[in-house]
Write a structure and sequence with these properties.
With 353 residues, the protein is α/β, with parallel strands linked by helices. The chain is 45% helix and 11% strand. The strands form four sheets. Strands 1, 4, 5, 6, 9 and 12 form a six-stranded parallel sheet that branches. It has a two-stranded parallel sheet with strand order 2-3. Helix 4 (45-48) links the parallel strand 2 (39-40) and strand 3 (53-54). The structure holds zinc ion (ZN).
């Protein structure tokens, strides 16, 4: 359904009182809406990837809407337990953030705290105590900052000039070449950071400034520990933000992720989120063997007691959704109008080394 037609339909349904009827129905009572956020907009990153970021003011509006609408915002683990027991309170919602980037610490959490809402962070951990940005993301961002140009250098980084920075596809091809070169040369995270620094130099961008603003950096151990003490729930998202097709490597991602988080703060970690929302049915028994009891995707929808616990849908909330669409998901109305398809991949590649 085209977005304008969909919005007109939603407006009509809202005017006719359908939103309220569905929101307070027995059907909605047995369903849980899990909201999914990635990053909170800072600097100009929301222009680079509009589908990943939400303005802080928009997040505040969303949280205010939840409060005014008397939605029951529950901790994820409790919400899932009540869902499976068919004992959810009316208008149940859970809030999740993926990745655990620094902007959650600086911008997202303070707003959640203001409203007193519980939150689960699906924390990836490879970069936790490396004060450097996720390599592929920062390279993509640096090239995007010089979009529109053609660069006549780059040999020192194994690139073949001229480098066309005018399209997302050509910029992404450059990122891929840089990643392939790093893999070929077996570079670790810090060495890859030097590649990103050199790239910034070629593009005449102050890399020290990018580093100081902690763009694409994860929360460090101290920040995670501080938030955990304040009640933030940290759950699994793989160590390197990737999903190997090999069972042992896949399970090592879960084990390393759990071990890193346990070193910072001990807690039960049995909830998982597929990196980039990418999943395969072969992963399900592997997750179960690792004592994972819930796994969320980025496919849009509400969870019911009959939903496969290892394929739980969420509603990815970004600047692209207006208030009416947000409300339609909260009430459950949007579930009936949704186009069923797997979510698109959000990240160009893994956070690996
Ligand atoms: Zn992620």
């Amino acid at each position: 359904m085209k977005r304008t037609l969909k919005r007109a339909t939603l407006q009509l349904l809202k005017s006719a009182g359908v939103f309220g009827l569905v929101r307070d129905s027995a059907w909605r009572r047995h369903r849980l809406l899990i909201l999914c956020y990635h990053g909170i907009a800072h600097e100009d990153v929301q222009l680079w990837r509009p589908g990943l970021y939400l303005e802080p003011s928009r997040l505040e509006q969303r949280l205010d809407f939840l409060r005014r609408g008397q939605y029951n915002v529950l901790p994820l683990g409790e919400a899932l337990k009540l869902l499976w027991e068919k004992h959810l309170p009316p208008r149940s919602v859970a809030i999740t953030f993926d990745d655990g980037t620094f902007d959650f610490f600086s911008l997202g959490y303070p707003l959640l705290k203001k409203f007193g809402f519980p939150v689960t962070v699906y924390q990836t951990t490879y970069y936790t105590d490396r004060p450097i940005p996720v390599f592929n993301l920062v390279c993509s961002y640096l090239l995007w900052k010089r979009r529109g140009g053609v660069l006549d250098k780059g040999e020192e980084l194994g690139l073949k000039p001229p480098l066309d920075l005018r399209s997302e596809a050509s910029r992404q091809a450059i990122v891929q070449t840089l990643m392939d070169n790093c893999t070929r040369d077996n570079l670790d995270g810090m060495q890859k950071n030097e590649v990103a620094r050199k790239l910034a130099g070629l593009l005449d961008i102050d890399y020290a400034e990018v580093l100081s603003k902690r763009v694409f950096q994860l929360m460090n151990s101290q920040e995670i520990a501080q938030l955990a003490r304040e009640g933030v729930d940290f759950q699994l998202h793989t160590h390197r933000h990737c999903m190997p097709k090999d069972k042992l490597l896949f399970q090592k991602e879960i084990q390393d992720n759990r071990e890193c988080l346990d070193k910072i703060i001990s807690a039960e970690r049995v909830h998982f989120c597929y990196p980039s929302g990418v999943y395969s049915h072969e992963f399900l028994p592997w997750l179960a063997e690792e004592n994972v009891i819930s796994a969320t995707t980025c496919d849009v929808g509400l969870a019911s007691p009959h939903t496969n616990p290892l394929l739980i849908p969420r509603m990815v909330d970004t600047n692209a959704r207006n208030d009416l669409e947000f409300e339609a998901w909260l009430t459950g109305v949007a579930e009936f109008l949704a186009i069923r398809r797997a979510a698109t991949q959000h990240y160009p590649a893994a956070h690996n080394d």
